[in-house]
């Protein structure tokens, strides 16, 4: 029980470790359900994974991929959308079949239906085998923002101010970000494995709070300390404020 910690030298090492982990899950369970975050943290992991899959040739044809979250109202053609990110960095290079990919449709006029459909798919697959997630500057995972109800599954949320501000980095021009649609804390708690990726000094304070502060929904990532198989994979910079450092 708990959140184990792996500290590696740099972003490249974090990404290679994470890519190996995902690759092994794919090899062990070729029908796995894998939930993927977007953002800067997992970007190199996905590039490494693409390389490993192209060379190692595991059968990925039966893996189902779901998206962790999406910006409500942002079209999938926008390069800042989570949809665009996953297709560009992973699904297109690996030629994953459309029928194996389930992402929230953030333009849907029935977002509740999107949530129900996602939850039903996860139930049909007997749960998520692996979640690959980053951590926001406010401790969010996906769009599970500070104060989130830990009993939720998929849901629509008004974005935290920090998320709206930091999120601008993904977009070419200033973009009005108001709501998100996301997997919930229950999905995170019940996933077989969760990998939390963080690198860089900017994440060091929130990583310290996540690993050493109080377990509280004010810092949603602290829920990972209640998980049975969650691992934080950090570079030395993200880990630099931890009191107990494990390499
Ligand atoms: P990042 O985003 O990987 O781009 O830092 C993390 C997050 O907000 O979840």
Describe the structure.
This protein has 247 residues and is of the alpha/beta class. 34% of the residues lie in helices and 17% in strands. It has seven helices and ten strands. It has helices at 11-28, 40-56, 82-94, 111-124, 161-166, 185-190, 204-212, and strands at residues 3-8, 33-36, 64-67, 69-71, 101-102, 130-133, 155-158, 179-182, 193-198, 230-235. The strands form two sheets. It has a seven-stranded parallel sheet with strand order 1-10-9-6-2-3-5, covered by helices on one side. The chain has a three-stranded antiparallel sheet with strand order 4-8-7, covered by helices on one side. Strand 9, helix 7 (204-212) and strand 10 (230-235) form a beta-alpha-beta unit. Helix 1 (11-28) packs across helix 2 (40-56). It is globular, with a radius of gyration of 17 Å. The two termini are 19 Å apart. 2-phosphoglycolic acid (PGA) binds at residues 39-41, 134-136.
> Beta-strand level of the residues, as a percent range?
15-25%
Helical content (DSSP H or I, runs of 4+)? 25-40%
Task: Determine Rg (CA atoms, Å).
Answer: 17 Å
User: How many helical stretches?
Assistant: 7
Low-confidence stretches: none
Mean pLDDT: 97
How many strand segments?
10
* Strand order in space, largest sheet: 1-10-9-6-2-3-5
The distinct ligands, each listed once, are:
2-phosphoglycolic acid
